[in-house]
Write a structure and sequence with these properties.
By secondary structure, the chain is α+β, with helices and mostly antiparallel strands. The chain is built from eight helices and 16 strands. The protein has three domains: about 190 residues, no CATH class; about 70 residues; about 80 residues, PDZ domain (Pdz3 Domain, Roll), CATH 2.30.42.10. About 25% of the residues are buried.
Length: about 400
Amino acid sequence: MLSILAVILLFTTMVAIHEGGHLIMAKRAGVFCYEFSIGMGPKVISFTIGETLYSLRLFPIGGYVKMAGVEEKLRLEGRVVSIRFQNQKIIELYEKNTSDASSSFLVESIDHSQALIHLKKVSDQTKCAVHYGEDACIIANDGQRIPILPYQRMYQSKKPHKRIAILLAGPLANIILAVFITLGITAYSGVPNNEPIIGSLLTENNHALESSDKILSLNGQAVESWNDLIKKWSDSPTTPVMEILRDDENKKVLVSADLYRFVQPEVTHNPLRIIAVSLERTYHQSTILVNGLKQLFIGELSLHNVSGPAGVMKLSYDVASQSDIITFFMWVSIMNLNVAIFNLLPLPALDGGRIFLILVEWLRGRPIASKKEIWVHFIGFVFMITLTILATWNDIIKFISS
């Protein structure tokens, strides 16, 4: 049970951090955020803070931040509506069917600077402009209340660099979490010192070496570092003779040829060294993940090796149930890096794909036509669904064969 809870917590935290990055940066840019959701499916818990609805949904996979101006369905222009007034101002517009033309109006445009909605009556094509109230909203057919917002609160109103910052914030939040987890693990376990000094021995069958012994030479060859010591020791064809420094006194000792498997170096808890090693380990793990994706795309790695959500959850469960807490947190760090790197791929429907389109817009000096952009994201969505189905099929085959 604890392992299952650990996996749920892993995925929930990973999504919350990613979407939280988007949310914070969007709010800093002044974008109106309708909803911040963790998970998919039916709502389990929801509450409103300020102008944003926060919800936890049933299935702990995925999440989203619904921002004004991102989805085409949130646009008011072009909708046919009926109107409710209060104090001679529009307070609610109800989306409706055009068959009832007598009380239907087509929304032509909105002038947010004057708080005016320009309307055209469906029945006789007469036009008018009416002020809307401060809390005016449109009630969509599905019951969704959509505030009528100034253009400045829309995602699309922001300059390219601000939209890129909003999109980058999600993956960056996952990377930051991965770095902090690695930092915590490194601070707890310490950083191995490369000096040839014995830190600890993992066997009691030794009477020659002690902790804090400094190895000066092995079989007459000077030892420069811990890595140099292990290499010379493992390559030694005979029982090694070591010259050591113990309590300020030089000694020669005879040691077992395979004892190098059971010795560990001294560790340091120097803060600067811990930070440097943590960043180095995070970078190293990132390069492994990037190389894996590269091999997948150029065909060096078969798609049969790709795991879907079920496979990743199963692997996470195995790590949680069979490993210690340090190993599990290392896995959490790797998973966050995985999410960040995958989302930065320049594929439609991913953060990286959206960033790529914004860069194209920036270079062209004008936005891409919305219909073209919708089609690009639709193709990307179909690709992602196809990849997920293929990966899930791989998971099923693996489960059956095991």
